[in-house]
Specification:
207 residues; Adenine-n6-DNA-methyltransferase TaqI, Chain A, domain 2; three-stranded mixed β-sheet
Length: 207
């Protein structure tokens, strides 16, 4: 089924540009099953740089049909529960991975809205303030309902502008990763230099 196009620039609510589905709700406590035929993607499996820790995914055998909870390429996962309501654009994903119940799965249904732009917009101050204002805080863990999410108004610029934003964000993510590696190596060198500056080697105290 081909996706429809929308005029740009424009402002629309989420429900007009994407389908939103809940994540998989397990019955009872989650337990790792080495023989499970599916993996479960949880919040802890996603880094702030939008990377998935593939080797740490919990394996399970879901009860009933699980296909509607499957995560696919170009989906956007929105963390609905907890203090951080971050969105993640899925650029790569193994087969048979389910989104946990803490997520909503957003599937863009218009051809000239980039999923990466949608995820970026959801993480910006305007959207984050909206979620904090409308989150349900009656329980111990705050929660953004589906109704709140689908009624968020988003600004959608021309496709070329969306692509430019995606390019800038990718370059910035790469630069941050390089800086992280650099600082980790510098930390090691600095600590080694400090240890070498001691007049005597460090020895364990005799008991």
């Amino acid at each position: 089924m081909s996706k429809k196009q929308i005029s740009q620039p424009t402002s629309l609510i989420i429900s007009e540009v994407a389908d939103v589905y809940p994540g998989y709700q397990a019955r009872g406590a989650l337990k790792h099953d080495p023989q499970g035929t599916y993996s479960l993607l949880q919040g802890k499996d996603l880094s702030s740089s939008q990377k998935i820790f593939h080797d740490e995914l919990l394996r399970l055998e879901p009860i009933g049909s699980a296909n509607k909870y499957l995560v696919s390429f170009d989906d956007v996962l929105f963390q609905a529960r907890g203090y951080s309501n971050q969105a993640f654009h899925i650029e790569e994903i193994p087969e048979r991975v389910l989104a946990a119940a803490t997520f909503y799965i957003l599937k863009v249904r218009v051809s000239n809205l980039l999923p990466s732009y949608l995820a970026w917009f959801l993480n910006q101050r305007y959207a984050q303030n909206y979620f904090k204002t409308h989150a349900n805080t009656s329980s111990a863990v705050s929660y953004v309902s589906k109704e709140v999410l689908i009624n968020l108004e988003i600004f959608i610029p021309a496709l070329e502008t969306q692509a430019k934003i995606q390019s800038i964000q990718s370059a910035w993510a790469h630069e941050k990763n390089l800086m992280k590696v650099y600082l980790e190596k510098k930390e090691i060198l600095i600590q080694e230099s400090c240890l070498n500056a001691l007049s005597h080697p460090i020895k364990e105290k005799r008991r």
